[in-house]
Amino acid sequence: MSQVTYTDHTGASRTVPATVGDSVMETAVRNGVPGIVAECGGSLSCATCHVFVDDADLGNLPAMEEMEDEMLWGAAEDRRDNSRLSCQLKVTDGCDLHVTTPSTQV
Amino acid sequence: MADGLLIIGSSQAGVSLATSLRALGYADPITLLGDENHRPYQRPALSKEWLQGEITNESLMFRTQEYWLEHRIDVLKNERIIRIDKRDDGSGVAHSMSGREFAFDRLALAVGARPRRLLLDGVDLPGVLYLRNADDALELKARVPDVRDVVVIGGGFIGLEAAASLTKMGRSVTLLEAAPRLVPRAVGEQTSAYLLDHHRAAGIDVVLDAEVRRIVARGDRVGGVELADGRVVPADLVLVGVGVLPNTELAESVGLVCDNGVRVDESALASDGVTVAVGDCANLPNPVPGAPDGDRVRFESVNNAVEQAKVAAYAITGRREEYAGIPWFWSNQGALKLQIAGLSSGHDRTLVRADPERGKFSVLYYRGDRILAADCVNHPLDFMAVRAALSKGLSIPYDAAADPSVQLKSVTVEPAALVAD
After folding, report:
1. Share of chain B above pLDDT 90, in %
2. pLDDT value, residue B254
3. Of B288, B289, B287, B259, the residue nearest B271 (C-alpha)
4. Longest Cα pair distance anywhere in chain B, in angstroms?
5. CA distance A52 to B153
6. A2-100: in CATH 1.20.1260.10
7. pLDDT in tens, B32-62
8. Smallest Cα–Cα separation from B241: which of B282, B172, B300?
9. For residue B1, what pLDDT band results from cuts at 50, 70 and 90?
10. Which value, to the nearest 10 degrees, does the dihedral of the CA atoms of residues B202, B204, B209, B214 take?
């Protein structure tokens, strides 16, 4: 079983069971997790699904492509070393991913 | 307040209104009516990732069933409203084609738009398709395996997205555009020229200034498209994407003022002062700071559906909030990611920032020293910088931006700095 834990900027957490193959963004939006807007539905056009990935999980994720990297420079809250766009992070079998959402996405 | 809010239309605007209201703590019942046989889904991918089989049906869904239940949003499909009885206080009853009645304290119209139909001989032949909703997309996708030659009529976003997708899927695509350039309504000439070069190089046979005379049959189905010069372009499938018309019939039937959409104010309130209208069906005051007084716009975009729904949700909960943010648009066309920030109307000069080696291309639009908008192709850094500058009321000086190696974010300044120069 896979799951994603979303912590908002105030520290409140919510763990959501996730379907393998869905993105971390889709898992959040479909279940109504606040803090991820995702206006463009995952087509790498809006940078409103910005998350900070827990350092322990960071190494398990696929590397960023150029488009994601460039979009992150324009995210509403400044990017950090552990920033990713959650639409680009796929849930894998047995994953237990922890991310924190920024205080604003727009 | 037993009946609550009735939202007619369960696409992006309707869904955003319902979810925004619950996020604001609105506690009355919400009924969200869709007229299709599908749970509320997202449309943008239908012409792109979904058509190409890169994503599943499930990934188009806005929310899980559990979300709707938990948030007490009553989502109904297959309910097409055909008549509304509305009282002066904004409450009333809506009647659906299935015979059901939906009483409401307040009404929200998120009824969208429909494809403009071609009025030509042959348009009713099997194999002449439009692409707006999931059923259109399902039909298109089902036909693709049996198709070799495709003619796309219309070189706007939908036409180009579908043409690029179908080309990637191995089909031979001819695209007919009536105007002398591609996407004439939404981008400037330099962007049109860039798109034209790209799509021709990718294998799409683009015909500009195309005057379509009629659709011709082969047997009992579509066989080609005849142009005014007599040439017939062979087609096993014709896809028409020549714009949309706002669905205003219901609004007109209850006496709401309509003019290229349902006329609403800054708070998304229609002319009765109670009913809200959001998304593609709404004609709103131009929200861009500095827009001419009285200027009105009707957007066909996800961004507008989301932002206008937020404003409407505030209005319904008794607050007045200004429409926030700068209009933005995107269109993924094969390998091209086009992103547009702002509205370029009224510009008096443009600036091209091109990096041919990396396939990046942007056009910035200025009126005097003031930046109005940007078309960005595969150039998210420029797009995000212009969008951020516009939404914060900042300036990107023309001369500083002229060097394509300069990061726009690094030359963004307070407007006063321009005067000081």
Report:
1. 93
2. 98
3. B259
4. 71
5. 44
6. no
7. 999 999 999 999 999 999 999 999 998 899 9
8. B300
9. low
10. -170
In contact, B8 and B92? CB cutoff 8 Å: no
Distance CA B71, CA B69 (A): 5
Q: Which of B73, B302, B307, B338 to mutate to test the interface with A (most CBs of A within 10 A)?
A: B302
H-helix or E-strand spanning residue B6: strand B5-8
What does the alpha-carbon distance between residue B160 and residue B21 come to, in Å, rounded to a whole number? 35
Confidence at B421, pLDDT banded by 50, 70, 90: very low
Residue ranges per structural domain of chain A: 2-100
Closest CB to A45 among B23, B70, B339: B339
Structure tokens at B316: 């319904």
Q: Which two tokens stand for residue A6?
A: 């979303």
Question: Considering CB atoms only, which of A31, A34, A71 is closest to B64?
Answer: A31
Please report the beta strands in B262-385, taking only residues with DSSP state E, as ranges in sequence order.
262-263, 276-277, 282-285, 296-297, 328-333, 336-342, 349-355, 360-367, 370-377
Asked if A74 and B66 come within 8 Å (Cβ–Cβ), the reply is no
- What fold characterizes domain B335-420? Enolase-like; domain 1 (3.30.390)
d(CA B114, CA B96): 19
Query: What's B59's DSSP letter?
Result: G
Gap between the Cα atoms of B236 and B125, Å rounded: 11
- Delimit the CATH 3.50.50.60 region(s) of chain B: 5-114+245-316, 117-242
Q: Which residues contact B207 (CB under 8 A, 6 or more apart)?
A: B174, B175, B176, B177, B227, B233
- pLDDT at res. B416: 63
User: Which residue ranges does chain B devote to CATH 3.30.390.30?
Assistant: 335-420
**How many Å apart are CA B421 and CA B244, to the nearest integer?**
45
Architecture of domain B5-114+245-316: 3-Layer(bba) Sandwich (3.50)
Q: Scanning the structure block, which residue is given the tokens 């559990």?
A: B66
* From A21, A41, A45, residue closest to B42, measured CB to CB: A41
List of chain B residues whose C-beta atoms are within 8 Å of the C-beta of residue A34? 23
In chain B, the residue whose alpha carbon lies closest to the alpha carbon of A68 is B380
Q: Cβ separation of B62 and A30 shorter than 8 Å?
A: yes
For residue B276, which of B294, B259, B286, B263 has the smallest C-alpha distance? B263
CATH of domain B117-242: 3.50.50.60
* Widest distance between CA atoms in chain A: 34
Read off the pLDDT of each residue in A44-69 and give the average, rounded to a whole number: 93
